[in-house]
Amino acid sequence: MNTAPFSANAFARFAPALFVLLWSTGFIGAKFGLPYCEPVTFMWYRYTIVSVLLGGFVLAVSAPWPREPVAYLHLALSGLLLHGLYIGGVFVAIAHGMSSGIAALIVGVQPLLTATLVGPLLGETLSPRQWAGFVVGFAGLALTVFKTFDLGELPLFGLLTCLCALLAITFGTIYQKRHTAGIDNRVGALVQFIATAVVAGIVSSVFETGQVDWHPRFIFALAWLCFALSLGAISILWILIKRGAAAKVASLFYLVPPVTAIEGYLLFGETLHATQMIGIATTAAGVALINRA
What we know:
Blueprint: H1 4-33, H2 39-61, H3 69-95, H4 100-107, H5 110-122, H6 128-145, H7 156-179, H8 185-207, H9 216-243, H10 246-251, H11 256-268, H12 274-291
Helix pairs in contact: 1-9, 1-11, 2-8, 2-9, 3-7, 3-8, 4-6, 5-7, 6-12
């Protein structure tokens, strides 16, 4: 009996939920690890470790490497956008005083911005129902993070890095969809990680002290971000971008703050307000409108 179609269907059904669950834990990992290490230094350790682990695996299984030199440039650029500027921008913004609610709302514009750009850049057409879903999803996101707003002080540097992160994840998703479709997922991710590690190492050596407090919480956060995020969630994201429309994949990022809010309630005893619960339901409804067949 051929189980391949069943396996493919099962993956297609559960991969988006698994991606959202894993990706949302990145904010939990940042909460654990950033007090013990500067943000870009944290990224350098993360992507260097992941590059070594994934590199050994790629060599062991003899994964096919791209033959065209330009493919490596596309991978490096998409990696710097998705891993370096996006994650680095959010980490640096939070480290410099930006509230998590404002940061989540700014980068939460990404699905709506992606939906606006996929038409002229990728030729994807969105229905009126999907456009309504993007608007409803953003409204739900705003309700979800409303309680963590801190409008008293908006650090200019943190605001700029959040905007940089927003543009990076938006154009990174579109760029990867357009230029890296035929590349092996494992090799593609490895080249992206190496490029990010090199740039993070240069930036951290110039602008940070490089000091790390090897507290057990930091070690746990580093290990979690390496395995669950970089090796788990990123692999799923690669597959989702290859198989699905860029706008639909981008819509999954709407669900990350609501899932993070639920995780904070379950893991840290954070209060889950009625407004947030309404926001979570509204966000889920918006994403359902976007992705409904």
